UniProtKB/TrEMBL annotation:
Signal peptide start and end residues: 1-31
DUF3806 domain ranges (all copies): 75-159
Protein name per the record: DUF3806 domain-containing protein
Keywords tagged on the record: Signal
Organism for this UniProt entry: Exilibacterium tricleocarpae
InterPro entries the UniProt entry points to: DUF3806
Keyword check for Signal: yes
UniProt-listed Pfam families: DUF3806
Domain of life assignment: Bacteria
Length: 184
């Protein structure tokens, strides 16, 4: 038996369907907005925030380990020691994210990436991007998200995976090598 709509409901159902179709086909509809991404330069406050995060890790390293952030690959070992010794608890999100700022600075230095502000439907993040592209990594949360759920991260592995992910998008120099990897 075929279901029958009451006469009053038929026009209402038609109107709802019509409005739904119009909203989906209209220019600038919600479907378009979901895919919009904005990548802009860091402002003063963003740069200051990142520096404070690095300073936080430098302070922990100096006080607890007797070393400092060096802004080179030695920082991978420093971050790993912080992880292994449990110097930052999994509930200390800002400090965990500060470790990601140190990791991000290393990736910026090594690969020629640039810190940028990345905004999409999810929100606003600090990211490291291949300049003039939308190819970005999010190092601030690369370590923190894993550690917050109790994973003992291998910092060098996270670093290596990030390099592998972004390398295909780096500018090429002669002989097909990524720009900043030629000297290594």
């Amino acid at each position: 038996m075929k279901p029958v709509l009451k006469p009053v409901l038929k026009p209402m159902v038609r109107a709802v369907c019509y409005c739904l179709l119009l909203s989906l086909s209209a220019p600038g509809s919600w479907a378009d907005d979901e895919d919009k991404v904005s990548i802009t330069e860091l402002g003063w406050m963003d740069r200051n925030h990142l520096q404070k995060q690095v300073d936080t890790i430098d302070d922990i390293a100096r006080r607890q380990l007797g070393v400092q952030v060096r802004n080179n690959r030695d920082d991978l070992e420093l971050l790993q020691r912080i992880v292994n010794q449990g110097l930052i608890g999994k509930e200390e999100r800002l400090k965990l994210q500060a470790m990601g700022a140190v990791l991000g600075n290393l990736l910026v230095r090594e690969l020629g990436l640039k810190w940028m502000v990345y905004e999409d439907k999810v929100g606003r993040s600090r990211a490291i991007c291949v300049e003039a592209t939308s190819h970005c990594l999010f190092p601030v949360t690369m370590l923190s998200r894993r550690m917050e759920v109790g994973i003992l991260v291998n910092v060098r592995e996270v670093y290596t995976n990030a390099v592998e992910i972004i390398t295909p998008y780096l500018p090429k120099k002669p002989f097909g090598l990524p720009a900043l990897l030629q000297g290594h």
